[in-house]
Amino acid sequence: MRQKKDIKEDLVFDQFKVQIENKGMTIESIDTAELILIKKGDLTLEVSLDNVRKNYARDKDKTHISDLVGILADYSIEIPEDWNLAKNDIYISLHPNDFDCKEFINFKITNEIDKVYIHTGNDKFSLISKNDLSKWNITELDLENQAKKNADKLLSESVIEFDILENRKLGMLESKYPNLKSALLLAPSMAEKVKTDFSFPFFAVIPVRDFCYIFSENDFQFFASKIGKVVVDEYKKSGYQVTTEILKFTEKGIEAVGKYPVE
């Protein structure tokens, strides 16, 4: 463990440590690369606070710390050990990358968000780790294919409602599982779903888990100039933030083409 003199002015670490312990977890050690080993029951999770520190320094918002603690607290060994019992609750999701959690499978999408895999059982969102793949005896490709299959099924049961503003359509994804809207955005069949009323490529904003707007490429300038306040307001008031970026979805993937400032 590093010496107290190294962390006495590290507010992020101090707050993180208090909140971790309040959730019944403990910090086992901190290595020379500043990776923190968190003990949770039979699990050991490897975490870096680098991005949390960066974002806290930017906006002095302690929710960056509490969000990370919440994710670690939600991660559970209650995820079924049998792949056949777990697979129907596996989804792809978009998640803020304001921390580095080495145990979980993640891929960078933009400067602010990663693609992750989640299990939605027990009314929790548990991120999928490499240990889970070993337990299930599957590959990352197996995981991805199952997540896509589940997302397509969920999308087929969901609708895109829309408002008309000056003869332009602003879409809203509606699902029986509101917190899985990023899974709908990432569903392979989404391209076909949006073609009828919108376009492909299309644009989307998803400031929080359960809030998402989509709009056509031709209407980019119109809506990008009008929805910023709503996006930022939703982002600020939620404990499940994603990003204030404007995302473009194309055959090549996802890219951020702009961002609404939070301050």
Report on this model:
It contains ten helices and 14 strands. The chain has a six-stranded antiparallel beta sheet. Strands 1-2-3-5 form a four-stranded antiparallel beta sheet. Strands 4, 6, 7 and 8 form a four-stranded antiparallel beta sheet that branches. It is of the alpha+beta class. The model is unreliable at 1-8 (pLDDT under 50).
Brief summary of the model shown:
The protein is an alpha+beta fold and 263 residues long. Helices cover 33% and strands 29% of the residues. It contains ten helices and 14 strands.
Element-level helix/strand string: HEEEHHHEEEEEHHEEHHEEHHEE
Number of helices: 10
Average of pLDDT? 87
Q: Main β-sheet, in a few words?
A: 6 strands, antiparallel
Percent helix, as a range, is 25-40%
Q: Class by helix and strand content?
A: alpha+beta
Distance between the termini: 37 Å
Shape: globular
Strand order of the largest sheet: 9-10-12-11-13-14
Rounded to an integer in angstroms, the radius of gyration calculated over CA atoms is 19 Å
Record field, number of beta strands: 14
Note poorly predicted spans.
Answer: 1-8
Strand content: 25-35%
Key terms for this structure?
263 residues; alpha+beta; 6-stranded antiparallel beta sheet; 4-stranded antiparallel beta sheet; 10 helices; 33% helix; disordered N terminus
Map the helices and strands:
Elements: H1 11-22, E1 26-30, E2 36-40, E3 43-48, H2 50-59, H3 63-74, H4 83-86, E4 90-96, E5 100-101, E6 106-108, E7 113-119, E8 126-127, H5 130-136, H6 140-156, E9 159-165, E10 168-174, H7 181-185, H8 190-195, E11 202-208, E12 211-216, H9 220-224, H10 228-237, E13 245-250, E14 253-259
Antiparallel strand pairs: 1-2, 2-3, 3-5, 4-7, 6-7, 7-8, 9-10, 10-12, 11-12, 11-13, 13-14
Helix pairs in contact: 1-3
